[in-house]
Amino acid sequence: MLEIGTGTGYNTALLCAGLGDQHVSSIDIDYTEAARQRLASLGYRPVLRTGDGIEGIPDRAPFDRIMATVAVSHIPRAWLDQLVDDGLILADVKLNPAAGNLVLVRKRGEVAEGRFDAGQAWFMDMRHPDQPEPPRASPTSEAPTCTTTSLPAVAWEQPVPWFLACLTNGTPVDVGYRLDDDYQPVAARLTAGDGSWAEIDTAETEPRAVAQAGPTRLWDAVEHAYRRWRDWGEPGWDRFGLTVTAYGEHTVWLDEPGQVVATFAR
Ligand SMILES: C[S@@+](CC[C@H](N)C(=O)[O-])C[C@H]1O[C@@H](n2cnc3c(N)ncnc32)[C@H](O)[C@@H]1O
């Protein structure tokens, strides 16, 4: 079993108790010595490594199970390579803040496939200190398009339609608020890596004012996602699944793998 994100070692201890420490490996990008000492004090000596978990631990592979207690934007190729056939990966796949959930995929040949969890879980994002941050454009100063909406202004508080919207954006999106002089939120704000932005009035009264600018119409993507989601009967996470190929193609589907919602490649 491989755990990604050792942290305190608490979850590693649970894995050691359940499986036996000789069957547990764990990796964290940060210092793992404190976890090692804590685990040793309980009599557990799993393999602990310090490094980027996106690479797995090749010299300990193959693994029957890989569990990530840190959020990833995709299922890394190395994890598929290091998993036995019929093995399972449990990971929090998150495209943007709040846009994703735990998914459990089973490997069969070159493909891993499975469903999102019915509940909602969020881990902190995976960090890659050795990789430069992708460049982000400043918010565009072009004049915005102004419309209105009857949807909730804080789009990221509705995780399923927000996930569907982020699937179509193709650019990283940050979320936040515009504050007034008393530091009270007056608008929910989406900003994208390509300079696009959208602001949605947080007033209680409908319809709410929307302003958006830039090459990616961020609010249009949210409206489109809601229309699809409502047409499908507002499905919860457990009706969605994910198929991942060894070539990095990720397909999100509804109910069964043939009913494709969107694909993305990493
Ligand atoms: C939510 S904590 C994990 C909690 C842990 N399983 C426990 O029981 O305490 C997420 C962990 O992922 C680690 N992390 C972040 N980026 C990582 C990466 N690229 N590779 C491995 N670990 C990473 C963080 O340092 C942090 O310790």
TrEMBL record:
GO cellular component labels: cytoplasm
Cited InterPro entries: PCMT, SAM-dependent_MTases_sf
Annotated EC: 2.1.1.77
Subcellular location: Cytoplasm
Keyword Amino-acid biosynthesis tagged: no
GO BP annotations, alphabetical order: methylation
Family to which the UniProt record says this protein belongs: Belongs to the methyltransferase superfamily. L-isoaspartyl/D-aspartyl protein methyltransferase family.
Protein name: Protein-L-isoaspartate O-methyltransferase
Organism of this sequence: Gandjariella thermophila
